[in-house]
Every structure is written in structure tokens, then in C-alpha cells.
Amino acid sequence: MGIRVERVIEAAFALSGLLAGVAGILVAPLFTISSTMGTLFGIKAFAVAILGGIESAWGVVLAGLIYGIAEALITALLGSTYTQIVTFALVILALALRPNGLFGRAQLRKV
Amino acid sequence: MTALKAAAAAIAIAVVCFLIARGNNYQVFIIVTVGLTAIVGIGLNVLLGLNGQISLGHVAFYAIGAYTVGILTTNYDWSFWPALIASGIVTGLAGMLLAIPALKVRGPYLAMVTIAFGFVVEQGAAEWQGLTGGWNGLSGIPGPSVFGTEIGERGIAYLTLALVVVAAAAFAWLSRSVWGHAMRAVRDSESASISIGLDPTLVRTAAFGISAVAAGVAGGVYAPISNFISPESFPFFQSILFLLVVMLGGADRVIGPIVGALVVVLLPELLATLGQYRLLFVGLLMLAVLRLARRIVAIAGDWIDDLRLATGLLTRVPMPHLDGVMPAGLARAQRAFPLVGAIIGLVVGLADLSLLGIGIPPLVAATLALGAGAALTGALHEDGLADVGDGFGGGRDRATKLLIMRDSRLGTYGMIVLLVGFVARASALASLPLATIIPALVVAHALGRAVIPVLAANMPFARDDGLGKSAGRPEAASAITAIIIAAVIALLCLSGKEALLALAVTVAGAAAMALLAWRQIGGVTGDVFGATEQVAETAVLIMLAARLS
Prior knowledge:
- The structure holds 2 protein chains of 2 kinds.
- By secondary structure, chain A is an all-alpha fold.
- Helices cover 68% and strands 0% of the residues of chain A.
- Chain A contains 4 helices and no strands.
- The two termini of chain A are 23 Å apart.
- The model of chain A has no long low-confidence stretch (mean pLDDT 80).
- Chain B is mostly helical.
- A two-stranded antiparallel ribbon of chain B has the order 1-4. In chain B, strands 2-3 form a two-stranded antiparallel ribbon.
- Chains A and B meet through helix 2 and helix 4 of A and helix 5 and helix 9 of B.
């Protein structure tokens, strides 16, 4: 159809890098920065993207909000030791109940 | 499994046993790490390779296995063996448990579920202090015992080797069994697999369970060898490495995860001199390897083909002739001649040393060792030397010379040349000091074989048929590769000066033979190749005998 596949992939990577960079700028004043801090952020971001449902921009924003509030609530109610265990367990549970994310639509299966 | 593969596996196992027996503690630990990583990789290959499901949380099963053994042996005084079996059972159950949410999701959603599982297990191990010791971890995990004696690090290494063999064999069996085909069917098309009566849920759960058991058992062995486990022993990064192990070696292949584990574990160790930049380099190399994996495998495959062809041509060692007696690849295979030559030289050298070792006098031992070498090669090159002697010495014109060279009878000229060559080599070998026998023979045979592709690439052929011609004309690149390999072998085996001199006498001998052949019969034949090999080999041995004895 005349779409330059490689250019589109490049652009997608560049755009996602740009947005991650913006988020990094915003995070910098809030936390102590170290070279190993990225993994957990990356995983949480991935979790939010998946929970929101791929291809659903507003879903991801909402999922990010829900994830943040859930994390804060768990920390407040159960103590910080259980934050990650419970939030990640909730991620598994959420995906088990809604395999396409909280706001995603079922994808067409190609046979 | 073909006989060739079985033989290769037996040799590999023997080499690893040797390394375990001779290695120091650090080396044994590295061997165990490679083995355990390979076991996890083989298990993951069931999930990823056969069943097409991804797991970015496999370190969790490894951790569960390690903690099961650690907790049962330290807190409950179990001995290692039942604890290891328990770790397999516990992780198998955990795998099937994870399968419940995992079965509903695909692709990136499945990746997320497994990542989350990995984090839950890691954090769980850290927070459940009563059972796991929390961040302080568990230490003093007792090693396995056999008949009341602890088998120690080396024993664990042998156990790991045995487990790798069992895991690889089990994978090979599974891959060909009904279950293996069912897993591939579900991977390739779920709907189609349902339509032929398969239950994708059951098949996927089995794949999860099997891969979890492999990871758990590996973790169970890891606990005593590291003697200390804590949540930090099982970082998320490790899950990515496990995945890399499968991807590097090639999914759905028995040998794949073993090769992958070798690369993933050994590469960082080999680069230890780079210090803090090590991981950076490892990362870059991994990217390069993933990009070039197909080409690397193809190149390695070509070299194995070439070695097989070259060995089949140059020796009497039985080799499968997959593409007929005179395959098209024979021209390129000549680049592997120096490698085969080095191995022949090594065999002759070992024969000589063993004969000397049982008290046989040097000249006798050298003569017998050369005889053994001739038996190994079928006296291929000696035959060429004798024919060239007869032809060049006796024939009046080019046609007669070529006719004499093809005559199977041995004449006086050939006899004399053969005798001079053989006695010169035997006496040179007999006069060499013990320590230089193997290097000298390896270099002489490697250099001697390297001249063949050079002549074949550059000289006109004197006849239109025969072995030399039908092997085909190698490209210049193959000839250059052969020279480089031979030169590297010479530099590795000898001191710089001797190596350069060896190269020089080889070049001189080959040039003299090429000139002679050109003037006598206007080009080269297979016999001329053999004769040139003999001249170069003899010249190198004489030079080394003159300088070293």
C-alpha cells in the first residue's frame, strides 16, 4: 500500500523514546537518580500500557491513574513491604479476568 | 540421532568430565553455572520453542526450586536428594498455577503476566522472613551426599552434567513425541489444533509445567553449589538472560539452549579483563550476535562441512559422503586442509611419544609413527611423491611423464625419492627433543597441507582428469584462508623465529616444486600436490631438527 514499514517502525521507536524522555525529566526532581532505577519504572510503565489495553490511549492514561492510586492505597493500608507483591498480583488477576486489558477490545484472531 | 551425533555428544561429555576433574574451584563453578543455565534453557525451549509462549519470569521458578531445597535442607533437615525431587514437584505445581492466568493471554499480555509473577516471587521471598530469611537469605545449604559422603563441588558438577544430558534427551524425545507435535500444532494454529481434537489449555499447561520443573530442578542444584541464596540471587535480569539462552541457540532445537548457555555464561567471564565496562560490551556483543546469528550458524555449518570433506579426502577416517564421492564443495573445502593436517600431525606426534614412552629407541619410534601417519592418510601424499619421482625422472616428454605418473608400478626414481623423503623425516623426527615433537609435527603437517590449495588456485592443470583436477579450483580466498590458518598454527606452536623460518622453507619448497612441475609437465596434477606436501613437510621437519636439536 506504499507504507514505508521501516520508517514507520523507526518513527514509533523515536516517539516512544521521546515520551519516555519527557517522563524522565519529570521524574528527576522527585527521586534520587541512579543508573539502575530504570528497570522498575520500565516494568511499571509496561504494566500500565498492558493494563490499559494496547491501542487504547485513554485507557492507558486511566490505567496509569488507577495503578498509581492502587499503589498508594496498598502502601497506606498494608505498609510499603507489600506494595509490589500486591500490585503485581493484582496485575496478574486483572489480566486473568480481562485478557485484553481493562479497556482494550478483543483482538481479532487470525486463523 | 545419527551415529555421528552420538559420537560428538560422547566426546563432548568426555571433554566436560575431563574439565571437571582437572579444573579449579572457580572453573568448576563456571561449568555448573553453564550446565544449570542450559537446563533452564532446555525447559524454556519447551515453552517458547515447541509451544510458542514467552516467559519473562522464569527466574521465579529457578528461585522457587532453590528456596525449596534451601528451606527443606536447612530448616527441616531433609537430605538433598528428596529435597531436589520436592523442588521439581513444587515448581511443577507453581508452573501449572501460573498457567491459569497465563493461558488466557497472548503476546505482550503474557509477557506482562510472567514479569509480574517474577516480581511477586522475588518480593515474596524478601518479605516472608520466617520461611526464607528475607533479604538476609539462607546460608549453609548442605551439599548432596552419596552413601554418607558429601560429593562436593566436583560431584555437583557431574550431577549437573548428568541432568543436562537427561534434559536434552528428554527434550529430544518430547520433541518427536505426540505431545511435542501437539505443542507445535497449538503454537502454529490454535483453531486448527482444536479442530483435530487437541485441547490447547491442557497442552499449554503441560508446557508451562514441564518448563517450570526444569527451571526448578536447576534452581535446586544451584542452592548447594552457591551455598547462599537471597532474593538478590534471582534478579529480573536473569529471566531475560534465560530467554536469550533459547533465542541465541535457536528455538525448538535440542542443542540450541546448550550453545546459548555457553555464550551467555562464558562471554562475560571471558571479558572479565574489561572490568566495569564488561556488561556494556556483553550487551553490544549480544545485539551483534542476535543480528548475525543466522550468518554465524551458516558460516559454522560451512566450516563443519568443509572439515568433513577435507577429512574424508585427506585421511582414511570414515566420513559420511553426503553428496557423493566428488562433491562440488571440495574446492572450497581445501581451506580446511591445514586444520586436518594439524590433527594428523598431532596423531603422529602422540604415536611417537607413546612409543618413546614404552622405551622404544627414537629412530625406531619415529619410523613407526610415520608409518602410523601413512596408515591414517592412506599414504596419499607418499603415493604422489613416488609417482612424481618416476615421471619427472624417467619420462622423455610431457605425455610420457604423465603416462608414467599414472602407472601403478614403482620405478627406481620414485623408490629413491620416497626413500630419501621417508628417511629424512624419520631421522629428523628422531633427533627432535621430546617437548618439540608434537608442535613440530603439527606445524609441518599443517603447512604441508596449506600449499595444496595455493597451488590448486594458481597453477594450470597438466591433465583434464584425475583427483587433483576433479576436486576443483579453489578461489583465491580459500587459498589465503588456508595460508592464514597454517601461519596462525605455526605461530601458536613455535617461537616467532622458528615459525617464520618454517613459513619460509614451506614457501621455498612449494615454489621449487611448482617451477619444476611447470617445466616438466606444464602444470600441476594431484600427484604434484601430494609431492609438494611431502617436500614442504620434510623441509619444515629438517629445519626444525637443525635448529632445535
